[in-house]
Write a structure and sequence with these properties.
Number of domains: 1
Number of strands: 0
Largest sheet: none
Number of helices: 13
Radius of gyration: 27 Å
Distance between the termini: 6 Å
Structural class: mainly alpha
Strand content: under 5%
Length: 337
Amino acid sequence: MNTGSYYKLKHFIPWTRRNIYRLLVLATVPTVLYAVFGIQWIVIPWPIIALVGVGASFIAGFRNTQTYNRLWEARKIWGAIINDSRTWGIMVRDFITEKEADSDSPSLKEVHKRVIYRHLAWLTALRHQLRKPQSWENQSKSYFKEYLSHYKVPEWEVDLEDDLPPFLSLADLNHVLSKKNRATQILALQSEDLKKLKKKGLIGEFPYVNLENQLKDLYAHQGRCERIKNFPYPRQFTSISLYFIWLLTILVPFGLLEPLSKLGEYGVWLTIPFSAMIGWVFTSLEQVGESTENPFEGGANDIPMAQISRAIEIDLREMLGETALPNPIVPTNQILM
């Protein structure tokens, strides 16, 4: 997530420079054919290009709207995770009690810590799962790889096996790491633990139901994240957006040749910069949409799951009365992950 007011041109221009190079080549070829070799029949009437432009504009706008919706839905899911995590913390602290025991009972505090830390393990496992690359994501794109020099993706810097131990017992850790969907199994362990605590009389009937309902909501949030992660923006819409925009950028120089040649002896050469400028607008829209459609892929526009998880961790550990807390995650070069 970019925390600045906007992407500066010194970043945005290099990010899109490959498209600019292609556009300059596409504009230079017909200009040279027209101005140097005198091949004038290549001129295309502007109304034809305008009709293609209308279609390209519509599909580009549609795609960017839908990819933004995917991003915003992902952010709302993680906003709900924040709220439900805080609720989980106070419910665990206040619902898991012993009628006969003192409220400061060390054993009770240990139970609270175990259950809340297991929730932090769920957050850790979930964000690691969501960062795993998919075949349709953009990690292999040149512009993606280059911009990674501006920030780090925490889930790619540390393996899950190294991130989980602070939050789980050895038995729980070994059990979770032996499974494929680690986040799912952590919530299953939470439910199993709650059942045992209920049998011991540490949780009443009504609080137990509420805690289990809270786990159900966490499963729902995880499922919504997995739906976005595992189902790409429909490839048919990605394809027509790509084809329409590049068709337009190819045709634009052929439409500008004749009107610009009327400006004077060298007016026709203005076709190159103006065509590149028009094409840059559309190809940049395409690239922005492409970089927005997968909000968990590790790009600069992603949901800052590590920062959100750290904020939740600080809140929940403070509920336990801990004072040795980790520092909040801050942006690197205005990119927050």
